[in-house]
Amino acid sequence: MSDPWARLRAERDRQYSEPVDMAARLPSASRTQTATVMDITQANNDGNVHGGSIMRLVDEAAGIAAMRHCHRRVVTASMDDMSFLAPVFIGDLVTVRAMVNDAHRTSMEVGVRVDVENIATEQWRYVASAHLVFVALDVDGQPTEVPPVIAATDEERRRQQRARVRRDQRLLRKEALAAAAKSKERDTS
Ligand SMILES: CC(C)(COP(=O)(O)OP(=O)(O)OC[C@H]1O[C@@H](n2cnc3c(N)ncnc32)[C@H](O)[C@@H]1OP(=O)(O)O)[C@@H](O)C(=O)NCCC(=O)NCCS
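Above: query sequence and coenzyme A SMILES. Below: predicted holo structure tokens.
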């Protein structure tokens, strides 16, 4: 029997093999918004929404924004610290907004904001923000180049500058951890 998923995947592989226009893109071209009503399957043992359910929504919306920017498959490379500022309850409408802040050779930083609406009272709560890094992959699953970001507004320029500071911090942290691991290896050998 034919496998419909294999056919879909082959078609998607063909689409993702098409050359990508590498001209710089506006952050707004990647703008993504999702809205999801929280149901009982997303509850923790206290009956509130599980933080991990919100993180999944964040990862999904951010991944869509990254794909909109690069027109390739992407993987989540990292998620910066994410603090929850307000609880989310079953029945709440969770809105996740995501946009690419900056892009480098193969990676993109996506900024995400989560808000929640109580549909009955129309009250909104700001729940969380996060920054995620995605890496674009070619059809062989290897990191591949992405178009640069061209910031057009003051707000986009501010986000791009801050994204660059965070990238420097991530790289410094990665180097420091690698150096510490090497020095520990030397000490134990
Ligand atoms: C993300 C991944 C592709 C990077 O692979 P790699 O061998 O480190 O590739 P490279 O060293 O060429 O780095 C590629 C890019 O990823 C970035 N990167 C790698 N690790 C990173 C991290 N932890 N945080 C942020 N960016 C990272 C690099 O800075 C580089 O960006 P640039 O090309 O824009 O400068 C690889 O680690 C991977 O496949 N991880 C698993 C991802 C995954 O499955 N996610 C879902 C989990 S369920």
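The chain has one domain: 22-188.
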